[in-house]
Design goal:
Strand content of chain A: 25-35%
Largest sheet of chain A: 5 strands, mixed
Shape of chain B: globular
Number of helices of chain A: 3
Oligomer: heterodimer
Structural class of chain B: alpha+beta
Largest interface: A-B, 29 and 29 residues
Helix content of chain B: 40-55%
Largest sheet of chain B: 5 strands, mixed
Order of helices and strands of chain A: HEHHEEEE
Strand content of chain B: 15-25%
């Protein structure tokens, strides 16, 4: 029972550290924003624009880090655009690629 | 996405930013980078440098262009410079409801209110953000002084501006931009990179 509690606490700590890491990536972001082919395809389909995604990145509300590898970190941001769209956006940080890249998003 | 050594980097001579959300055509010259998969030829990433800077530059360029602002353009410009509708309405002396109807295309902003809006957007753009960092503040202060000189010139242009209320529906407004190489050591990953107008792309 106690062991399970310790494991849960460790998992929560790791999640907090990972989220803080993603937030620090956002703080040091150069402003360059990349778009995957999938995102460019989804934008007109969902009636969204690059500016909508930019607003979500700038809002900086990191809700989860989904991948942590040396060559790529993926994290999820959730926010509302000034047009009222609520979006969940997956961002990729790859130290070999400029800025941040929007690789997927969904309208909530 | 494949490893970066399997990707080819291409800087596009021209990129049509059709998904940007502008109500007019925006072309970007020699500034957009694409990562292309060497094997499949598929474009994996399309990178736009300093996207917020670009959006603000587009708004400012449109503000100085004398063609009457459509409802969609009003909305785009307000979003681009980050002013709340209620605050902007107050600055230009209309009710928030009237501004909202103008943005929706149900009403038309008077020429006088539109000029006020153009000046308000410029003033908002050149306002210093609050900061506790002395070095940053000094740097910003230098920038603001040069901006203020520009602003006075721009205000004079707007005061003298005759807004073109009628235009041929077949004429499409096209604005072109390019990263200023003098402000950026590298076109990418440089937070100081500035966007420049490319007037040759402008067609009315």
């Amino acid at each position: 029972m106690r062991e399970a509690g310790v494991k849960q606490s460790q998992a929560q700590s790791h999640s907090t550290i990972a989220t803080q890491f993603a937030s620090s990536i956002l703080k040091s972001w150069s402003g360059d924003l990349g778009f995957s082919a999938k995102v460019l395809e989804l934008l007109p389909r969902y009636g969204c624009t690059m500016i909508d995604l930019l607003e979500i990145v700038e809002s900086g509300n990191v809700v989860a880090v989904t991948k942590e590898e040396p060559h790529e970190t993926l994290f999820e941001l959730v926010g509302r655009t000034s047009d009222g769209h609520r979006l969940s956006l997956t961002i990729s940080f790859n130290p070999h690629i400029d800025g941040l890249s929007a690789i997927d998003f969904v309208r909530l | 996405m494949p490893a970066t050594d399997q990707l080819k980097v291409v800087v596009l001579t021209e990129f049509d930013a059709q998904d940007l959300g502008t109500p007019f055509k925006v072309l970007l010259f020699d500034s957009v980078k694409q990562y292309v998969n060497c094997k499949s030829g598929k474009v994996e990433r399309t990178i736009i440098p300093n996207l917020r800077g670009l959006v603000q530059k587009i708004a400012l360029t449109r503000i100085i262009y004398p063609q009457k602002l459509s409802g969609q353009e009003l909305r785009f410009i307000r979003k681009a410079v980050g002013i709340q509708a209620s605050k902007l309405a107050e600055k230009i002396g209309v009710t928030p409801e009237h501004l909202s109807r103008c943005e929706a295309g149900e009403r038309v902003l008077s020429s006088g209110a539109e000029k006020c809006l153009r000046v308000a957007v410029l003033l908002n753009h050149f306002t210093l953000p609050p900061t506790d960092d002395c070095e940053v503040e000094e740097c910003l202060q230098n920038k603001i002084e040069s901006f203020q000189k520009t602003l006075l010139n721009v205000q004079a242009i707007i005061n003298e501006m005759n807004i073109i209320a009628v235009s041929d529906v077949n004429d499409q407004l096209v604005l072109g931009f390019k990263i200023d190489p003098s402000t950026s050591t590298d076109l990418f990953d440089d937070p100081d990179a500035d966007w420049l107008d490319q007037p040759s792309a402008l067609a009315a």
